[in-house]
Predict the structure.
Amino acid sequence: MTAGMVIIGAGECGTRAAFALREAGYDGTIALVGAEPHLPYERPPLSKEAMTSDAPSIKAIADAERLAGHRIDLKGATTATSIDRANRSVRLADGSDLAYDKLLIATGSVPRQLPLPGLGSRSAYLRTFDDALRIRRHLREGVRIAIIGGGFIGLELAASARKLGAAVTVIEAQPRILTRGVPGEIAEVVHDTHVAEGVDIVCGDGIASIDDDGETVRIALASGRSIDADLAVIGIGAVPVTMLAETAGLALNNGISVDARLRTSDPDIFAAGDCCSFPLAIYGGRRVRLEAWRSAQELGGLAARNMLGAEEAHACVPWFWSDQYGLTLQIAGLPDEGERTIRRDLDDGAFILFHLKEDGRLVAASGIGPDNAVARDIRLAEMLIGKMARPDPEALTSPSVKLKSLLAA
Amino acid sequence: MSDWIEACAADDIDEEDVIRFDHAGRSFAIYRSPEDEFFATDGLCTHEQIHLSQGLVMGDIIECPKHNGRFNYKTGAARGAPVCVNLRTYAVKVDGGKVFIHLGN
């Protein structure tokens, strides 16, 4: 009898991997080990719908019936504490062992900790549903919320808090918000929208000290300004969870280091999702670690197929989105690969930036607009990026030219 | 409601494309396939209630503009994560250059 497949991490990536194993025809046992007590759930709503709902609930990726139907054995509220690579076995926190034929590590990431003392019961990070509930309890008309970090988590949370009538201050150490991976032109639209919605955004100012006495959080900025809040939420990025891999002696490199087939330095162990870095083929093998919902799904599926011997290399284009107020931003590819930018204006103030190499190759596209105004063009751009196309710049800037027509060319 | 409802002119939809049609408080998506046939489904994705009409039609697939959930718009079948609930479809006919959909019961 074979040992079966073991997946550590029951987030988007691990859960999708479990289903992908079944979809690929795997018939053996599948154990899915999750640290949280909930059914596997989608994280994107935590800063948005769950944060504005009167009765937040998880949006399950799969309910118990569907898990059972696919014979996925969810072991919740437990963690893996060590891997015995020689005997291909994983030890869980309760002392039990799980034998594996192939192991997938999909342990995700956790919020980067603010390297300062002084945090307390009115200070929070947002990663899990329980974190979201803790923050949600404080959000109401007139309450003062300080958000440390002008990234996606912080800004989506700011929009949700404003929707509920809270007074919101966002503090960003960099000269502008969204410095990581978002072009300035798009960050500016996001910034202006937040200001118009009443958010106070402080950029280019660091945190000198923070003092949370359990009722009020006093934040002293480097400039000398002081901000008092009823709740401080810290969103300054995420760090990959690699402890298990590290103690097992697996190679690390900005997370768990895997090859294009998501194999770690041990051929029986794969890693996928936020916890790993991998070479991105469309950019000549540039090593990246992606913290995005769709990437987690794609990597989970790819890892599953390769655990079954598919030998399939990663060939996806990174993509993510963010919703704030009525705006949606979408980015396909990594804009920092671009050497020049051209712009396509759509209706209702929506626009797309195409990021090109000097030789005309399209390497990324970023767009922002009301609802899903940019979605179709970004999707088509993503396909052009994947084909390493050199589309006619004139056509890209003309909204009357359908991008679909470029795809056929 | 068992009548045929006039939704749009056939020329309103490009080949391999989709438009939104709202009727009696409901939203529908009407498709023209690459083979120049017309189809209709519920207008909102079964995953997070997003209007599919802003999505991309590729062959016989409609892809949700939000999270890339896919459906075969001819049958309504969900075709991969994150969607797992099928889309309801409606009968369509073209008469005199107009597209009609049949809402059934």
Summary: Chain B has a mean pLDDT of 92. Chain B touches chain A through 14 residues (CB under 8 Å).
